[in-house]
Specification:
Two copies of one chain form a homodimer.
Chain A lengths: L7 E5 L4 H12 L4 E5 L12 H5 L20 H8 L2 E3 L2 E7 L4 E6 L5 E5 L2 E4 L3 E4 L11 E2 L4 H12 L5 E5 L3 H12 L3 E6 L11 H10 L6 E4 L3 E7 L2 E7 L2 E4 L2 E4 L2 E4 L2 H5 L23 E3 L6 E2 L6 E2 L4 H15 L13 E5 L2 E7 L2 H6 L4 E5 L2 E2 L10 E9 L5 E8 L3 H13 L4 H5 L15 H14 L4 E2 L1 H9 L5 E4 L3 H6 L8 E2 L2 H7 L9 E4 L4 H12 L6 E3 L2 H5 L9
Parallel strand pairs in A: 1-2, 1-7, 2-3, 7-18, 9-16, 10-11, 10-16, 11-12, 27-31, 28-29, 28-30, 30-31
Antiparallel strand pairs in A: 4-5, 5-6, 8-17, 13-14, 14-15, 19-20, 21-22, 22-26, 23-25, 24-25, 25-26
Helix pairs in contact in A: 1-8
Chain lengths: ~575, ~575
């Protein structure tokens, strides 16, 4: 069909993977004729930035589509810089794998044509998914997946038309948008079907910690609540009806999740994986060797479990794009998979996770050792040190790391990235404890929080550190079993922030060795302090004094407070 | 000598490794009788925090000796909490390995005694080292290694007695103290014998970048200058005399380096390594199986080279301490070594390094591929994004990472830690490019700077990215060879910040494909832009247009400017 000598590469989808694959292929093969087909009016935009446009942190939508030097990535840019033919507002209707053509329709003038390819890239992305409930067609029921969604939401909010928004789904999009709307003086209620926020990223204990850290006035979070239907008046949404009540509102964000856009691939007979995303091999090749797929429409190998997963992320899509760009142009590049790393900021709290949660690891059949060890992100005497809580999950048999979660105001990103790297290489707790990480007071503690957490986990394994989870202790107390909660903080700390229920005995760690006899020998003693460092020390002192039922409350008051007990102040 | 059943553990040295070993041993073995012998009046202090006390960032010296909850780590604390007998102001005079005793002198009353041990830990640390020059005995010639040094320096500075300080040595202590003194309104001159700052952490190109980023008014930095002697008046230092001139001053900080305190170990016949530090095996055991050594007085295995190194760091000392604490009490714990990670903040610029520098790697015999790829620490459209420049060093044959350096205002700590982790596990450039790092706009770019740098290095290896270093281009131009420097920035950028020498041709990247013919075909064209992203793209366009001698200037204007050319504004 073409008399040109260069290979014809057609890319369907212009957000992340597609443009990356196109640009990379173009740099490697100057003779390639490259076309990108994109249904929408925008290309190569930062989809992850949409909540920040809604909140006004990113003032102009263009901000999400510009290079670092301010050039807007539009058709002219792709033509001039990348020599790529970018067809915007053009929908791919079907793929004819025999004829090797893509049928497209220009959405401006409705004209159709067949575009021939030698190699095809399917990068059709994902789309917001909603459960089949009544009222989704009401006005002001939005999703936040493409730029027009964000434009509409910001218009409503800045137009003063939204007093109260309901966000359905406490995943990343829901929480980031909650922050954006709070910043715009909108009251927010989040409704989540699961019993916790971020159920795929966090275990229940860490989600509970997150809930306790979020500013109380910023958003009402209702977990374990099922949305039944949306109701409206004059075609505009006015109410969310759940199995527990009704919530008046004037805007609803559906943020339940996304699903891969595989219609085109499926119709073309390309193999779809069990995850529902397009099946690809380790070269990002589909079941047709001339067709590649990447980004949110394709499945990924999980490097820990060896299973295929649907893990849509802009960062992964970009890596796919590069691998595809290489393989389109004679390369032999492998995409080794993901370990499930994610991060978000919500209302001043940073949340990150990598690998498997404890729940997921147990489901995978692992015998798990987990540990929670609150810490600070740099030396406490250097200004600006902030707290955060890491949770590590490892295989109890081998000590091999399976995952980590991080919640707090402190720098969680660094630890998540280090752990993601360690997990990639099959590191054990011992390996992490001995990493040669960068230490100076403005950046870290002499023993970094990650190493401390790994050591606590090892101490637990070795039986030196004997802990109880706040939830387990709470359950024992709720059953009315006799226990002693021993608050080992210093007097001035106890005076400033007494433990709410008044049941705790207070003996400062510094006096404990001398005052051990004040404790009953017939009840288990559970030692408590803010970060569990002193409580651990106290539990060792009591163990040595013969109080063998002693344990420390893991996660300290950071976690104890969200397990139900109030710490005042 | 003792009738107690518990093992007698004696620890010489009370700063980092010693107390850690003692505390760990005590938690593992409640019957152990543990004694720490410390010459000075302080124990378990954060030596790395001393410059921040000098600068007033840490208001009280106690701040460096308190736990996170405000308890001062003194003898009472060690006794009450750790059940450790801490003997301050007690000097270890000699070790009798036959009798298994340590001869000590109480520096308060000069009384001597023999302390028996079953197991001994030598954690005698390091001391500031000075070259043998005249005038070291003058008043106000200080080092900054122990708390009294810092107290004295701060007294002088806050007493208004220091207008101009000279810091001899542009290593970590020198640079951190320069920041501290600048903050105290003291004029600072740094004199460094080597041709660059931080010669063991940075290559010359990165040190040049650092020099260009430091605020011009904060410190005069004189590299490649040898101090010949110090001169004084009335016993007080007034002048530093170098091979290039004289510098008037009223205080001198000797910050040339430290050397291990091995006198005691040597006299006791313990093996000293080629590094000058105490030789230890992978269990931190010395040549005497009942004697352990750790912290700044002991040598470490470098995990990359397999060689022993002297790498004194508080973070390493703490890891040593834990390993020793285990092995003292029946454990079988290995210290696997270091990869040479370090970090510091100097005058608002963050500097980190891990693994080998390019220079060191070449000395080790590696065929090296290196790459410099300026980046930003998070999405440019999210507020607060800051620049930094990573340099990666890898084995050209295998792609195995050998080291990395990071300089800039941005978050270098995260990347240094990820790279240190990757190096520990033998990662290649390809591995780093495919790491599943945490991405959200406030924390990272969709493709993290580390992955970008790894990909640039791979592109260089593959011949796709053809670059020239600023230094090499400068040399070519200095020889008067005909070249074209092509500035590919957009017009508004060029107008705002013209390149100083006026020789560059300006064709914006967006116009380059159409204007290729404006370039001479007979001269090599060197493409330049701020971060080398566009310049790389431009070099590909010119290559495809037949200008085969084209290269891009690696490191972009970030590095070009410090190679001698001024960029205005």
């Amino acid at each position: 069909m073409s008399t040109d000598s260069g290979s014809r590469i057609v890319v369907i989808g212009g957000v992340a993977c597609g443009p990356k694959a196109a640009a990379r292929a173009g740099r490697r093969d100057p003779n390639a004729k490259i076309t990108i087909i994109e249904r929408g009016p925008y290309v190569s935009y930062a989809g992850c930035g949409l909540p920040y446009f809604v909140g006004g942190t990113v003032p102009e939508l263009n901000g999400l589509m510009t290079t670092t030097y301010g050039a807007v990535r539009d058709a002219a840019y792709f033509s001039a810089v990348k020599a790529v033919d970018l067809k915007l507002r053009t929908e791919a209707l079907s793929i004819d794998r025999q004829a090797k053509t893509v049928r497209v329709r220009n959405l401006e003038d409705d004209r159709e044509e067949d575009i021939p390819y030698d190699k095809l890239v399917v990068a059709t992305g994902a789309e917001a998914w909603s459960p089949p409930i009544q009222g989704l067609d009401l006005d002001r029921v939005l999703s936040l997946h493409v730029p027009p969604d964000a434009v509409r939401m910001r218009e409503l909010v800045e137009g003063g038309e939204v007093d109260h928004a309901v966000i359905i789904g406490a995943g990343r999009t829901g929480l980031e948008t909650a922050e954006a709307l709070f910043g715009q003086a909108v009251d927010v209620t989040i409704v989540e079907l699961a019993d916790q926020m971020l159920p795929t990223t966090l275990d229940a204990d860490m989600a509970c910690l997150l809930a306790s850290l979020l500013p109380k006035d910023a958003a009402a979070i209702r977990t374990g609540e099922k949305v039944l239907r949306l109701e409206g008046a004059d075609g505009v949404v006015t109410k969310v009806v759940t199995d527990k009540g009704e919530i008046e509102c004037d805007m609803v964000l559906m943020a339940v999740g996304v699903r891969p856009n595989v219609g085109l691939a499926k119709a073309a007979g390309l193999e779809i994986g069990a995850t529902g995303a397009i099946a690809v091999d380790d070269h990002c090749r589909t079941s047709d060797p001339d067709v590649y797929a990447g980004g949110d429409c394709a499945e990924c190998l999980h490097r820990l479990t060896g299973k295929k997963v649907f893990a849509p992320l802009g960062s992964t899509a970009n890596r796919h794009g590069r691998v595809i760009g290489d393989n389109l142009t004679g390369g032999d590049e492998v995409f080794p998979g993901v370990v499930g790393t994610g991060i978000l900021k919500v209302l001043g709290i940073n949340v990150a996770g990598t690998g498997l949660t404890e729940t997921a690891a147990r489901k995978e059949g692992y015998d798990v050792i987990a540990c929670i060890a609150p810490s600070q992100d740099h030396a406490h005497y250097y200004p600006g040190a902030k707290s955060f809580v890491p949770k590590l999950v490892a295989d109890a048999k081998t000590g091999k790391l399976l995952g980590g979660q991080f919640v707090g105001r402190g720098d969680v990103a660094k630890r998540a990235d280090v752990l993601a790297t360690a997990i990639t290489f099959g590191a054990t707790l011992r390996d992490v404890a001995n990493l040669d990480l960068a230490y100076a007071p403005p950046f870290s503690t002499a023993i970094d929080a990650l190493a401390t957490a790994a050591n606590v986990a090892r101490n637990k394994q070795a039986g030196i550190a004997r802990s109880i989870s706040p939830a387990d202790l709470r359950a024992i107390m709720d059953r009315g079993e006799p226990v002693v909660v021993l608050d080992v903080r210093e007097r001035r700390e106890v005076e400033k922030h007494p433990i709410g229920n008044g049941d705790a005995i207070s003996i400062p760690l510094s006096e404990l060795r001398k005052r051990v006899t004040e404790l009953p020998v017939d009840k288990p003693v559970f030692c408590l302090c803010p970060r569990a460092v002193r409580a651990y020390e106290a539990s060792v002192i009591l163990r040595d004094a013969g109080l063998t039922q002693t344990r420390f409350v893991e996660g300290g008051m950071h976690l104890w407070s969200c397990a139900g007990d109030e710490i005042e102040g």
